[in-house]
Amino acid sequence: MPDSKSEYVLGVDLGGTKIYAGVFDFSLECVGTARLSTKPQRGPDEVIERIARCVKDAVDECDLKFDQIKAIGIGAPGAVDTETGRVIFAPNLAWRDVPLKKSLEKLLGITVCVENDANICTVGVHHAELKSKPRDLVGIFIGTGIGAGLILDGQLHSGLNRTAGEIGHMVIDIDGPKCACGNNGCFEALASRSAIFQHIHAAIKNGEKTILTEMLGPSLNDLRSGDLRKAIRRGDKLVDRIVAEAAEYIGIAVANVINLLNPEVVVLGGGLIEALEDEMMGVITKTAMEHVLSGTAKGISIIASKLADEAGITGGAVLARREVK
Amino acid sequence: MPDSKSEYVLGVDLGGTKIYAGVFDFSLECVGTARLSTKPQRGPDEVIERIARCVKDAVDECDLKFDQIKAIGIGAPGAVDTETGRVIFAPNLAWRDVPLKKSLEKLLGITVCVENDANICTVGVHHAELKSKPRDLVGIFIGTGIGAGLILDGQLHSGLNRTAGEIGHMVIDIDGPKCACGNNGCFEALASRSAIFQHIHAAIKNGEKTILTEMLGPSLNDLRSGDLRKAIRRGDKLVDRIVAEAAEYIGIAVANVINLLNPEVVVLGGGLIEALEDEMMGVITKTAMEHVLSGTAKGISIIASKLADEAGITGGAVLARREVK
């Protein structure tokens, strides 16, 4: 229970669609959350005001006073300069060089630290779910797009331009479909939620049958990952095949990561995995094991995160706690 | 000049075909080398005796006494347990669990440290060629096979099973040719020297013309990387096309590494690059730049190593020097 005399930290997951904020005590127990739509079309200033509003809502939700919050950690969907807290580039928000840390600190009057969203989710999983045990961990998050976070020798690895983890643009099928980035056969163009949806639309156009059209109408309005799970459980062969194909590509990407980095753990998360863990993880693991070089995967775990939507806010809280301690 | 009163270290590059040993002073200047064929078919014990003989030849070559050598660093073509100095698995030598460090120390009476060959080459390039400046460096070595070494945050990254860097088995063309590992479309099956040779043989079988058959006879006996360079410089369209295709695959692999790890430097080495640097590096860099995500490659260097054959023995000397200092 939140306590009016204790101190807390706050994690924020800033996405292209929604802002999600969570208040955590210092043992990383979540004591309350709030959500607000992002509305990126209104521009960075208004989005930052909405983040501040969502933060205050979360604090109010758990009956705390704002001065009990000691720091905020926030994950942004793009390349981030963690030292200055500037978002260098975030395509889903149409942001370029936005001083998120500075603006939010001005609005809220407390320390804000900013990280890339896949990185912050990986930190959340590493800390809260895996108790910081693995020295080397790769987190792969699959939703509309695909991103990864790398923890190597216990530390986040960001690279020269702080863009490490762009696994969504790893080419795994050079003759594959066109990706939004302009190249062909990127992992994201083969196995993201968007790619799966495109494959389903194309199959319907080709005259293939799916109960998704019964569930949602012929144009599949408002199709979500959860609908894929429902369709598969109702015996939909088309959706089953397309989801299994995506799982194979994910397995190959996991094998590429194991061959290259040989981490202790590869953790999968994001909306697609959250909705389809039971349907996908078997194929992912089997395909990965078929594609790693003999002897290299011994003892390596390939797991689905249990944190689901909480990974980002938890990671944000971990970073915020580091600022305070 | 070698000096009869100074102390030295020794680096050894153990390959499937030859053993190459070099004596270095403490400023990492090479003062003498020796070579000997490996003869792996005679078994580990005899190979280890040959390493000892090659080491003594190198010392004799530069008119030193063996007691001036303070430690030996050796790169082996496979997975190595660096703590015990055991070679866990080396397919090109047909070795499994060979106590290389222990056996060689018994024969020579001085400290021996053992590393994977791509790792030791990367250490050599990092230290001697790049003056240890890059925090994050990926070395990709292309010859009969393809391997990589990763230096992350200034340290060699070996991973859980000490097999990190198996970039040769990164899938980049899921429908591509069969690899020796059993999978399809591995980087090594597309762009290694062996892959290039196979493509040339297949093209000749298909009735395509190349001056290589004039140079070496119809079955291309004893074809080497240098012959490819000669053929291209004499205007051979077939060889030019096949080498350019391999360079494109290498460029894609480099882009995958930059997208995933965002290192400061990607350095290319190995026999194929050494022989065909002028012919391949332009295509490699152009293709890599086309396949990295926008903004991620700023300031990242993609270079060919100047150390050539010396990378392995130099890296061995670096490791040996660390043992002494």
Q: Could you describe the 3D structure shown?
A:
Chain A is α/β, with parallel strands linked by helices. Chain A has 10 helices and 13 strands. Chain A has a 5-stranded mixed sheet. A 5-stranded mixed sheet of chain A has the order 11-10-9-12-13, sandwiched between helices. In chain A, helix 5 runs antiparallel to helix 8 and helix 8 crosses helix 9. The longest helix of chain A is centred in the C-terminal third of the chain and has 25 residues. Chain A is globular, with a radius of gyration of 20 Å. The interface between A and B is large, with 53 and 53 residues.
What fraction of residues of chain A sit in β-strands? 15-25%
- End-to-end separation of chain A: 22 Å
Rounded to an integer in angstroms, the radius of gyration calculated over CA atoms of chain A is 20 Å
- Uncertain stretches of chain A: none
Largest sheet of chain A: 5 strands, mixed
Oligomer: homodimer
Report mean pLDDT of chain A, rounded to a whole number: 95
Structural class of chain A: alpha/beta
Biggest sheet, spatial arrangement of strands of chain A: 3-2-1-4-8
The outline of chain A comes out as globular
Number of helices of chain A: 10
What share of residues of chain A is helical?
A: 40-55%
Number of strands of chain A: 13
Order of helices and strands of chain A: EEEHEEEEHEHEEEHHHHHEHEH
The chain pair forming the largest interface, with residue counts per chain, is: A-B, 53 and 53 residues
